[in-house]
Amino acid sequence: MNDQLIIFDTTLRDGEQSPGASMTRDEKVRIAKVLERMRVDVIEAGFPVASPGDFEAVKAVAETVTESIVCGLARAVEKDIDRAAEAIKPAKRGRIHTFIATSPIHMEHKLRMTEDAVLERAVQMVRRARQYTDDVEFSAEDAVRSDIDFLCRVFEAAIDAGARTINVPDTVGYSIPQMWGERMKTLIERVPNSDKAIWSTHCHNDLGLAVANSLAAVLNGARQVECTINGLGERAGNASLEEIVMAVRTRRDVFQCDTRIDTTQIVPASRLVSNITGFPVQPNKAIVGANAFAHESGIHQDGVIKKRETYEIMRAEDVGWSANRMVLGKHSGRNAFRQRLKELGIEFRTEQDLNTAFERFKDLADKKHEIFDEDLQALVTEADLEQENEHYRLVSLKVCSQTGEVPYATITLAVNGGEKQSGAEGSGPVDASFKAIERIAGSRGTLLLYSVNNITSGTDSQGEVTVRLEKGGRIVNGHGADTDIVIASAKAYLNALNKLIVPAERTHPQVGQPI
Ligand code: KIV
Ligand code: ZN
Description:
Helix content is 40%, strand content 20%.
C-alpha cells in the first residue's frame, strides 16, 4: 500500500466558513505561504464562484504558491467549474474540487434531484473539470448519510469520468471511528475501479470525533486527509491538521504511512491563523496549545529532567515551539535580525522592506528588553497590515484614566492625507479610545469581538489585540500589537475599519447552497 499520506489543507475554504473567521485576500496569501513552507500537499484556497473577493483570493494564492497544489472548490455546476478553473489557472499545479450531495435528505429537500440525475450531473461536471486540468477531485457531500450502494455507483462513475481523488465527507460530523473506518474499507473494496483514485476523508467535529474518524479512515486505506490548522471550520470545525500529522508521525508503527509535512512550521502556522481569524487556541489543545508540553506535577517534571521520554511522546521543538526563546535585544544588528527572520521563514522582498522592519524592531527593543520569536512575527504582521489599504492611521493617542474619574481619550488620526482629532469619554480607556475613533469614522459597525492576548510572558510583553466588526452582514477582523494594550486596541480597531471601508471584497461562501 502507498505509504504517503496526502495532506489537503482547507483552512482557507472550510476554515473560513467558521462564522467570523473571514480573511482578506492578503491574509489568505500570507497563510498559504506558511502552508507551502510546511510542505502541505494541497491548499484549498477558496470557493471562487462565491464572490469576486473569493475568486481573487484563490487566484492570488495560485500566483504565489509553487510547491503545493492549489485547489478551488466548485459545486457540480458549469459556472462554478469554469470560475474555479479560471481562478487556479496561474497555478503551477492546480486542482478543481467538485462536489454534489448524495444523501437522500439532501437530494430530496435541498437539490430536489433523483439519484440518477445526481449521478449524471457528477459525471458531466467531472468531465468538464477534466477539460481544464488532469487533477480533479470529486466529493459526495453528506456521504456519511448516503446509501452505500448509491455511493459506490457514483464514485465508480466519477472515477471513470476522470476524477483522480475521491473524497468521502462526513459533512455533518455524525460518524464514529469504527463506522467511518468500515465505510472507507467497504468503498475501496466494492468500487471496481477504486485503485485508479486516491481515497480521501473529510470529517467535521460536531461530536468531537473529526480527528479520530479521519485516522480510522487512514487505517482503512484513505491516503488523503482534509483538515485545517487549529481545527478551524464550519460549526465545531474540521479535523485538525496538527493532530492528524503528529498522530501519524508519532505512531508510524500503527499507521504504516507518513506525511511530507515539515512539522517545525506547525506552531508558527497555528499562531498566524489564530491571529488573523481572532480565534484563540485553547491552552490545553493538543500540539499547539500553550500547555501542550508543560508539566505541572512534580513527579512529571522530575521524570522529564531525568529522561524526557518518561512523560513526553513528542519533542516540543519538533512542532515549532522554540527551546531558546530569547532571540534578540537592543544591541542586535541588522544581520542578526535578518538571519533570525530567515530562520523563521520570513524573507524580505526588498532592502527597503528590511530597513523598515528593522526600524520597527529597534523601536520595540527600546521599549522591551528581550525580543522573542513571537515578537518578531507580530512585528512583520504589523508591517504587512500597514501596507493594506490604510485609510485611517493612528498618529497619537492620549488616555487619562484615574481612580474615581471617567476615562477620557484624545486621538489624532491621519485620514486621506490630512489629520483629524477627537476625544471621548468611556467606561474604560479602551472604550473611550474606540468612541473617540468612531467620532471621526462614524462607521456604525457593531463590535462582535474584542480580545487581548499577551504575545510572550511578562508584563513588558506586547499585547496582541483582535477586534471583530460587523456591518451590513459583512464581518472583518482587525489586529494590532503594542507593548501598550490601549494603543494595540486602537490599532486593531483602525485595522478593522480599514477593512470595512474596502468595497465588499467577498460575501460569506455558501457551499451548501442548492445547485
Ligand atoms: O463538509 C463537506 O461536505 C464539504 C464538501 C464541500 C467537501 O466541505
Ligand atoms: Zn466540510
